[in-house]
Amino acid sequence: MYLEIVTPEKVLLSAEVVSVTVPGVEGEFQMLNNHEPIVSVLEEGDVKIEGSFTIEEDVQNQFTKQADNKYHLHIKGGVLEMKNNKAVILAD
Q1: Cα-flanking dihedrals φ and ψ of residue 49, to 5°?
Q2: What are residue 18's DSSP bridge partners?
Q3: Residue 78 pLDDT
Q4: What does the UniProt entry say about where the protein is found (predicted)?
Q5: Is the pTM of this model over 0.85?
Q6: What DSSP string describes 62-84?
Q7: How many Å apart are CA 79 and CA 4, to the nearest integer?
Q8: Alpha helix (H) residue ranges in 1-92
Q9: Burial of residue 63 (number of CB atoms within 10 Å: 0-12, 13-18, 19+)
Q10: Total structural domains in the chain?
Q11: Is the dihedral of CA 38, 60, 76, 69 positive or negative?
Q12: What's the CATH code of the domain at 18?
């Protein structure tokens, strides 16, 4: 699936990923390829991303590498939309 993570300042990530786990207001949940359409408010927490992708050099310091092909990005909140195998996170 395709993932975009956007902040008011810039696009942090725009890449094909295997999965993304987000901190929803009713708990953490994961999305994989062909997930049903969803819109969700996100709480403060870590967005967990798995996949083989390149993070732009100017934003690498915002991501924490957990293991091979696994990264975390801490957000203060935001909104997620998943539709047509594309997830867009508008993060604070």
Answers
A1: -120, 135
A2: none
A3: 97
A4: Endomembrane system
A5: yes
A6: GEEEEETTEEEEEES-EEEEEET
A7: 12
A8: none
A9: middle
A10: 1
A11: positive
A12: 2.60.15.10
Identify the domain containing residue 51 by its residue range: 2-91
Paired tokens of 53: 């992708």
Confidence band for 64, pLDDT divided at 50, 70 and 90: very high
Over residues 7-17, the pLDDT tens digits come to: 999 999 999 99
Which residue's entry shows tokens 């993060």? 91
Q: What is the pLDDT of residue 53?
A: 94
Which pair of structure tokens corresponds to residue 2? 């395709």
- Model pLDDT, residue 42: 98
Please, what sign has the CA dihedral across residues 6, 36, 38, 45? negative
Rounded Cα distance between 25 and 39, Å, is: 12
Cβ 78 vs Cβ 45: under 8 Å: no
Q: Computed from CA positions of residues 1, 12, 52, 30, in that sequence, does the dihedral angle turn out positive or negative?
A: negative
Let me know: does 48 contact 65? Beta carbons within 8 Å: no
Supply 61's token pair: 């310091």
